[in-house]
Write a structure and sequence with these properties.
about 45% helix, globular, alpha/beta, Rossmann fold, about 270 residues, seven-stranded parallel beta sheet
């Protein structure tokens, strides 16, 4: 079992446990890295944009060691480079939050670019499997570790006008739950974090500024991150984070056709004005 990081933090003779957080330059990933640091972890943080350097400076003020790696995880070599740099630290990962992801909003046939959707699949799905393969093997070899996958309540419903994004999160959710079952008895736990709409740059980057979900009030990323971290340490299989309405949207009793209609009202281009 993983030692309590607070015990390690209070022991001057012990190094802090090490946590990896991808997509850590802003949003939920930034807040996840922050809560790890606040709870006694050293960090390896990764993101594609230069903001990861500023994030490193902020987290370093919380008392631990921070390694920042600017890398494009949508590319095979980007995942390999990140893993190489982790190995070069010669320190085991106590925890890994595989959070990097992107959205694409719009009409699948006329409003989105195939290049953007293939990039989404490469980042949200392919890189998640690639990095998990490396990290989970190492953790199982040590019989110790925790993995947090950032899924979404979109994983539980059809997602019109975010069709590829929703499908990618359904993959991540299924993958995380299957891996959790496979790793029973190994000393490695897997938890799925399932946020709803969260106040980050996600919707702007996805081209969804004119949608109802893009303009509505959203959950605070710091709250989502704290719920995910708490669930990870508790060894839970998943947590639906954020407001109570997220639990309603994720409810399995609602027919898929109804969920699809609900999602359409939120994500259809121009729905902000309806």
């Amino acid at each position: 079992m993983v030692e309590d990081p607070k015990d390690l933090k209070n022991s001057p003779s012990s190094r802090r446990p090490l946590a990896l957080v991808t997509g850590a330059s802003d949003g939920i990933g930034y807040e996840l890295a922050k809560v790890f640091a606040e709870n006694g972890y050293d960090l390896v943080i990764a993101a594609e944009d230069p903001g990861i350097v500023e994030a490193k400076q902020a987290f370093a003020q919380l008392g631990g060691e921070v390694e920042a790696i600017q890398v494009n995880l949508a590319q095979y070599e980007g995942v390999e480079e990140l893993y190489r740099q982790i190995v070069n630290l010669r320190r085991p990962l106590a925890a890994a939050a595989l959070n990097a992801g992107v959205g694409v909003g719009g009409d699948f046939t006329k409003g989105t670019r195939l290049e953007d959707e293939l990039n989404l699949i490469n980042l949200n799905v392919v890189s998640t499997v690639h990095l998990a393969k490396k990290i989970a093997r190492d953790m199982v070899d040590r019989a110790q570790g925790r993995i947090l996958f950032t899924s979404s309540i979109a994983a539980t419903m059809p997602a019109p006008f975010e069709a590829v994004y929703g499908a990618s999160k359904a993959f991540v959710q299924s993958f995380a739950q299957a891996l959790r079952n496979e790793l029973k008895g190994t000393g490695v736990s897997v938890t799925s974090l399932m946020p709803g709409a969260t106040e980050t740059n996600f919707f702007h980057r996805a081209g969804m500024d004119d949608t109802k979900v893009g303009t509505d009030e959203k959950d605070a990323p710091a709250d989502v991150a704290r719920e995910g971290f708490k669930a990870l340490l508790a060894g839970k299989d998943h947590v639906v984070a954020g407001s109570l309405k997220n639990r309603f949207y994720a409810a399995k009793i609602i027919p898929e056709t109804v969920k699809a209609a609900m999602h359409r009202r939120l994500s259809e281009p121009g729905s902000a004005e309806k």
